[in-house]
Amino acid sequence: MKTPVQFRLNDQPVAVFVDGGDNLLTALRDGVGDVTPKFGCGQGACGACTVIVEGEPRLACITLAEACEGARVETLAGLRRGPDLHPLQSAFMEHFAAQCGFCTPGMIMAAKALLDRNPRPSREEVVEAIAGNICRCTGYEPIIEAILAAAASARRY
Amino acid sequence: MPITVKTTATFAEAADLVAGNRAARFLGGGTLLMRDVNEGSVAFETLVRTTEPARAIRTAGSRIEIGAAVTIAQIQAERDLAFLHGAARLIGGPAVRAAGTVGGNLFAPSPYGDLATALLALDGVATLQQGASRREMPLGDLFAQRGRDLRGVVVSVSILRPESADAFRFRKVSRVKPKGAAVLTIAAHLPTSGGRIGKARVAYGAMAPTPIRARAVERALEGRSLDRDGVAAALAAAAEGTDPADDAIASAWYRREVAPVYLRRLLLNEPD
After folding, report:
1. How many separate domains does chain A show?
2. Are A132 and B94 within 8 A, CB to CB?
3. Which CATH number characterizes residue A12's domain?
4. ipTM exceeding cut-off 0.90 for this assembly
């Protein structure tokens, strides 16, 4: 039996039908068609599916879709403003913070959750913020540099 | 196999749905159960959740009552729970902490359950909703019955407020830092009077299928002081009564070998 779920995705109302036990990642990718959150492990261990729910970073793969009824959900797809990149996206590009790119949407959303709450984080706070996100290419240093650079940039998020 | 999700308005209704249905599980933050759902677990077919709020944190005298739906991130933001901040920070990443709950952590299989270990050391007592009534159960009893014949749904957990900042101590040994599953976790409440320990409560995580009290260590600490000589008997008894697992993180042998090392560091406030 399908269950209807309605929530706000990147400031737009969306409605999807989900199967019992479907997670938010399935609802976003298969239901809404937002494929920016990635399926990595399905176990909440890799962070590739990180989105922001009600201002907090959440792992979409272990979040029950039905529990998001009425919630505000943000994904990487909501960051672009026309042709303009979000400061985090620009910083990731400028600092070579993406190689294969699979972890990038989750990394950027984990970073955004941090900067939304703490616009001038210390390096240690950045490391903590992405502690749940695995990157197998970069060795993390360029990612940490990119997030610190985005925080230091004068532009607003 | 599709899962049936049932959402209730109250804990009482949720407890009724879980009672008498071995194929039903109560869903907290989902960090444990949703993994099983994604893996296609056949151990359960119904998830029960409630919209009744359980996110209050109340201080009453020497104890603090924490709602079952309080998340680990909420603990980190709560000034009255500053003594738990060190433990909370070592659990998962920020996204896991934003979802994982106090109630759910009580059911985390080893090597998870670091918070539950801390709550056990703080004389945690769970309030369980069973039918229309509620009853209290010490966490030690809850862990003993967990997965067997435990009835009811956890609504809140009441813990002791440590008598001083130094009286509560927590160490988590993990290979990946700051986030990583535990080789072992040690939590201890060590009230002292005139430099002597009285009524120590020491708990281990990842040293048995559930968090356990290190009773031999507690006995050996009674009336002693927290110095090299005072803790010697406790260290000798560090692995007594434990039943750790061989898993991908560490072997049972290794866990027993390092338990006294980390127990000493905790008791003597030595760095890791």
Report:
1. 2
2. yes
3. 3.10.20.30
4. yes
